[in-house]
Specification:
The chain is an alpha/beta fold and about 280 residues long. The protein is about 40% helix and about 15% strand. It holds the Pfam family Aldo_ket_red.
Length: about 280
């Protein structure tokens, strides 16, 4: 049973990644993102997920540096993820994008670097670039985001390194069971973005009943569900109370009936874009 915020999963290359982290999508560059990241680290979070497209890497870097000093930590205590944006995909441009992310975050290496979306005709060259920076030791692990099974199978045809992580939209209305199983079979760790379904699940009566049974809130039930089905999760918030609450999921366990009831909520419903049909 996972029982601590700093518990980790061992990725397919031996790197340890925290099961729960802070997502900073839509956290504004400057004071808002700096405060959120510092708050999370102060309360025990050790994983921060950003991306070039979020336009807040500099704030994340500043916050991590300050939090390390203020909390007596070291750089290696914090797991930092970023992603290459679609407009920068391709071999040479991805190498440039990675260097830009390093500079903005003001770090010597990243813990995880992902392809943000499977841009047709480009993601294989992008992956070659990720393999290069991985071999050079500039990043501890590389992976993908928003890749469906057919994208992964296409990538495998030429890849020398199997992705360590696949970060996808995953919540009770989009329980991607086949994708989860495929990734597990290939040794790829699935990670959930938008685990709370953009807040649309918080009033669900089934989830409210399970939450009441365990003396928890709905968000905590969903995040605990992620962990119990083997999915890393990165809820986003800039509110200190919610940041603390979202991490308070290690002192209870959902039972078989709870898990079955949550799985039954699946509607194959996306609140974000479809990896097979996006135009950005």
């Amino acid at each position: 049973m996972l029982n601590h915020l700093q518990d980790t999963v061992t990725l397919n290359n031996g790197v340890k990644m925290p099961w729960l982290g802070l997502g900073v999508y839509k956290a504004q560059e400057g004071e808002e993102v700096v405060s959120a990241v510092k708050t999370a680290i102060r309360h025990g979070y050790r994983s921060i997920d950003t991306a070039a497209a979020y336009n807040n890497e500099e704030g994340v870097g500043q916050a991590v540096a300050e939090a390390i000093l203020e909390n007596g930590l070291a750089r290696e205590d914090i797991f930092i993820t970023s992603k290459v944006w679609n407009s920068m995909q391709g071999y040479e441009t991805t190498l440039e994008a990675f260097d830009t992310s390093l500079r903005k975050l003001n770090v010597d290496y990243l813990d995880l670097f992902l392809i943000h979306w499977p841009v047709k005709g480009k993601y294989k060259d992008t992956w070659r670039a990720l393999e290069k920076i991985y071999r050079e030791g500039k990043v501890r692990a590389i992976g993908v985001s928003n890749f469906n099974i057919h994208h992964l199978e296409d990538l495998f045809a030429d890849a020398e390194v199997v992705p360590a992580v696949n970060q996808v939209e995953f919540h009770p209305h989009l329980f991607q069971k086949e994708l989860l199983q495929f990734n597990q079979d290939k040794g790829i760790q699935l990670e959930a973005w938008s685990p709370l379904g953009q807040g649309k699940l918080l009033e669900n009566e089934t989830l409210k009943a399970i939450a009441a049974k365990h003396g928890k809130n709905v968000a905590q039930v969903i995040l605990r569900w992620d962990l119990q089905v083997g999915v890393v999760t990165i809820p986003k918030s800039v509110n200190e109370g919610r940041i603390v609450q979202n991490a308070n999921v290690f002192d209870f366990q959902l039972d078989i009936e709870d898990l079955a009831a949550i799985e039954a909520l699946n509607q194959d419903l996306r609140y974000g874009s479809d990896p097979d049909n996006f135009n950005f």
